[in-house]
Amino acid sequence: MPRVNVIDRQGNTHQIEAAAETPLMYSLRDAGLPVEGTCGGYAACGSCHVYVERDWLDRLPAKEELEADMLALLEAVDADRSRLCCQIDMRDDLDGLVLELAPEE
After folding, report:
1. Are strands 3-7 and 97-101 parallel, antiparallel or unpaired?
2. 53 by DSSP, 3-state: which?
3. Distance CA 33, CA 10 (A)
4. Rounded Cα distance, 17 and 40, in Å
5. Whole-prediction pTM value?
6. Is the dihedral of CA 19, 82, 14, 55 positive or negative?
7. I want to staple 44 with a disulfide (CB 3.0 to 4.6 A). Which of 12, 37, 39, 90 is the partner?
8. In this predicted model, what pLDDT tens digit does every residue of 2-51 receive, in sequence order?
9. For residue range 49-105, what is the model confidence (pLDDT) as tens digits?
């Protein structure tokens, strides 16, 4: 199972296991991190907003229009690093992924 290193909003790092072939949002939420995912993974709420470390950006699929539109509505967006983790399907080659939870809106 791939591991993800998550920096929470207090600066603490958590290493969690993330189920492959599953949106990352569910693994973060199931690990007890404050990721709501209130829209159920449809990129419609922005409550799973994260910043992906730059070294990992090229390994992720490009943002689709729906995700980009939702991110455009959020306040604390980093144009390069912001992603909705409901749109990141975990894969074995993402083992070690590093991301930070974005500030709450």
Report:
1. parallel
2. coil
3. 12
4. 20
5. 0.94
6. positive
7. 39
8. 999 999 999 999 999 999 999 999 999 999 999 999 999 999 999 999 99
9. 999 999 999 999 999 999 999 999 999 999 999 999 999 999 999 999 999 999 987
Which residue in the block uniquely carries the two structure tokens 């922005």?
46
How far is CA 96 from each of CA 4, 11, 23, 80, 103, rounded to the nearest angstrom?
Answer: 5, 18, 16, 20, 22
CA distance 63 to 88: 9
Task: Choose among 40, 42, 58, 41: nearest CA to 97.
Answer: 58
Helix (H) or strand (E) holding 52: strand 49-52
